[in-house]
Each structure stands twice: as C-alpha cells, then as structure tokens.
Amino acid sequence: MPEPFSGIIRKKLIESCEELKFPCHKNGTVVTIEGPRFSTKAESKMFRQFGADVINMSIAPEAILANEAEVPYGVIAMSTDYDCWKEDEEPASWEVIRMVMRENVERVKQVLLKVIASFSREQEIAKLKDKIRTIPNFPKQGIMFRDITTLLKDKDGVQKLIELLYDRYKDFQIDAIAGIESRGFAIAGMLAGRLGTGLVLIRKPGKLPAETISEAYNLEYGTDKVEIHKDAVSPKQKILLIDDLIATGGTALASCKLINQLQGEIVECCFPIELPDLKGREKLEQNNQKVFSLIKFNETES
C-alpha cells in the first residue's frame, strides 16, 4: 500500500476539476479517525503534527479493501470545515457541515460525470486509432508513417472524429479554422461546417492565387515554406489551427507565425494524431501556443 490511490483516476479527477474551474488541492495527507464524531483539540493538534491536511472518517478502510481486491481506487475529499485546532473559527456543527456538503455534492456530481465521460472517450479514441494505417519506411527508411486516410474514408470513424473535436471546441469562441495542406483541409473543413465558422487555407508555395505572405521552416534536409492569403485573417480574429498530425512541429509553427503576422489570435493548435517522441508539442508550447491532440503514437509502435 505505498500508493493507495490509483494514479489514473487521480489524474482524471484533477483534470476534471481544472476543466470545470473548481478549486482543488492536488496533494495532501489524510488521517482517518473512527466516527461518526468530532475531534478534541488535543487530537486535532496531534493530527497536524502528523502532517495531516484532511481528517475524515472513511477512505482508509475502503482503500485497503480496494487494493486487496486489486480494484483501482480514487477519492474526492470534500472539505466541510476547519478542525478545532483553528481557534478563531466557530466549532464545527452538523448543521453547517450539511449545508456545505449540499453545495459540494453538486460540484462533485459534475466532476464525476466528466471523469466517467473521459473513460468512455478513451474507448472511442482507441477505436479511432485502430482505423489509422501505419506504413513502415515511408517516405524513407526508418519512418513509421501514420496514414489518417483510412480513418477519413470510414464514415463512422470520421463522424466520431468530428464529433469529438466538436465537443471540445463548441464552447470556444472561434471565428475561423485554419487548415494546413493537405489532410488538414479535410478535417478543418468538416469541423468548420459543424461549428459554423469560416475556413482559412494554409498551403505550400505557389498554390494560392491572390497576394500572400510566406514563412519558411526547416526540414531534415533543407527548408520549405507555407503561405496564406494576406486577407485570409483579420486582426484579432480568433483562429483554431488544424492539421492531421504533429511530428516535429515545423509546419505548424510556421503556420502560427503566418496567423500572428496577420494579427490573428490562435486559440489552440489541434491535431488528431500526435507523435510525442518527435517533440513537436514542446516546440509549439515554447512559442506560447496551446496544443491539443486525440491520438498518440510512439515512434516504434506498429
């Protein structure tokens, strides 16, 4: 029992609180006492010397049973009152605790619903991942190419993909979605239709007919460029940037710079597929860009 709580459940509880903007403490020590009863002042001071952050009348027995049964266990501690060590506070009473509990319970319900939904969402994402084809040694030896076209041609898969992205962005304030050539066009176009936003195209050189600006980025051997129409984005427009995949992040970062040059505001960079080993997320986050992805592939994953 060195770690009595499930790290996975704990992480999901914390993430749900953060998404809901509920204040929460991520770390702490719980002391479980026999109840139902309140502590004496002597006990309260002793528990503080033990390093206790929370005193309660459950958790420990349940945690022991869950670990013996090999059932992942997580807990939300709903703070209701200060223990009696704090002499400038009124002593706790059942009436006050019941009132605070009623308020807390409504929040906990929302947290639990988010956690449950996240487990369901993980199963849906796993199914989408199975629909993505991996092609070894393309476009060169040693590369595992993640081909999203097999997901895009699957009517149920592509609908679920857009549904998951819609659920994430439906409450964001977005004026337009910028899609990066070429697979990013398909995803950005479908999501723009669902969200009711405009669509902006970011292309390779020489493919846009009107006046453009361009941004170069480094490849393993040499450089390349992306371009955008000068009138594609207006100042202060809120833009969601989308490509099918983030690897090293060079194309995405160059695209962000184009939008910034036109004084657009990037709300997030979205990629259905992420290759974490290639550090593209880190490159974007170091340039103050928020990054979201659904499906992750390790470099050697087949």
Structural overview:
The chain is α/β, with parallel strands linked by helices and 302 residues long. It is built from 9 helices and 12 strands. It has helices spanning 7-20, 41-49, 60-68, 94-130, 149-152, 155-169, 183-195, 250-261, 280-286; strands at residues 30-32, 54-56, 133-136, 144-147, 176-180, 198-202, 212-218, 223-229, 238-242, 245-246, 265-274, 291-296. The strands form 4 sheets. Strands 5, 6, 9, 10, 11 and 12 form a 6-stranded parallel β-sheet that branches. Strand 5 (176-180), helix 7 (183-195) and strand 6 (198-202) form a beta-alpha-beta unit. Helix 1 (7-20) crosses helix 4 (94-130) and helix 4 (94-130) packs antiparallel against helix 6. The two termini are 35 Å apart.
Short précis:
With about 300 residues, this protein is α/β, with parallel strands linked by helices.
The description of the largest β-sheet is:
6 strands, parallel
Order of helices and strands: HEHEHHEEHHEHEEEEEHEHE
Helix-strand makeup class: alpha/beta
Q: Beta-sheet strand percentage?
A: 15-25%
Q: Total helix count?
A: 9
Q: Whole-number average pLDDT?
A: 93
Distance between the termini: 35 Å
User: Unreliable runs, pLDDT <50, ≥5 residues?
Assistant: none
Can you tell me the overall shape?
A: elongated
Number of strands: 12
User: Radius of gyration in whole Å, from Cα?
Assistant: 25 Å
Helix content: 25-40%
